[in-house]
Amino acid sequence: MSNHQRRIAKLNEQELEAGISDSASWHNDYKDSAYIFIGGLPYNLNEGDVLTIFSQYGNPVHINLARDKDTGKSRGFAFLKYEDQRSTVLAVDNLDGATVLGRVLRVDHTYYKNRQDEEELKAAMAFNN
Q1: Contact 2, 104 (CB under 8 A)
Q2: Does pLDDT of 12 surpass 70?
Q3: Closest Cα partner for 11 from 111, 79, 109?
Q4: I want to staple 122 with a disulfide (CB 3.0 to 4.6 A). Which of 3, 34, 62, 101 is the partner?
Q5: Residue 24: how many CB atoms within 10 A of its CB?
Q6: Residue 67 in contact with residue 79, Cβ under 8 Å?
Q7: pLDDT digits 0-9 by tens, 29-44
Q8: Cβ within 8 Å of residue 2, ≥6 positions away
Q9: CA distance 27 to 125
């Protein structure tokens, strides 16, 4: 477990022990963003693989898996947006520090702005029930 993961686990434990409400939680600092940052991804995973892992905590509606411009190979990190911001809390708390194919994931809240060329992908990724 990295120092970052220990700090988050300690902070979550302190909030739980103190009976801190959701509105006072550190997660609330990101209440306006349904995006998470995912680092440490195995390089051979594609967007579908990442969606499969992260869909257990909510409905992903957008993903940007960073790729090398020349080779098209994954750079090992991604930004993922959930339909509901509450899913980000579950993903951060449950998947930060998880090991996937021998690599430790770093999952954290983030703010992210779509580039113009990502809008089509966002619409294509939307899951309508």
Answers
A1: yes
A2: no
A3: 109
A4: 62
A5: 11
A6: no
A7: 556 678 999 999 999 9
A8: 97, 104, 106
A9: 25
Pairing of the two strands 35-39 and 60-67: unpaired
Residues 6 or more apart whose CB falls under 8 angstroms from that of 83 comprise 34, 58, 59, 60, 61, 127
Q: Which amino acid is at 64?
A: N
**Which residue, among 32, 42, 27, has the nearest Cα to 78 in the 3D structure?**
42
Report which of 3, 58, 16, 7 is spatially closest to residue 35, judged by C-alpha positions. 58
What SS3 class is residue 60? Answer: strand
* pTM as predicted: 0.73
Phi and psi (nearest 5°) for 75? -95, 0
The model's pLDDT over 77-99, given as tens digits with 9 standing for 90+, comes to 999 999 998 899 999 989 999 99
Distance, CA of 7 to CA of 117 (rounded, Å):
36
Q: Are 6 and 108 in contact (CB under 8 A)?
A: no
Q: Residue 69, exposed/middle/buried by CB under 10 A (0-12, 13-18, 19+)? A: exposed
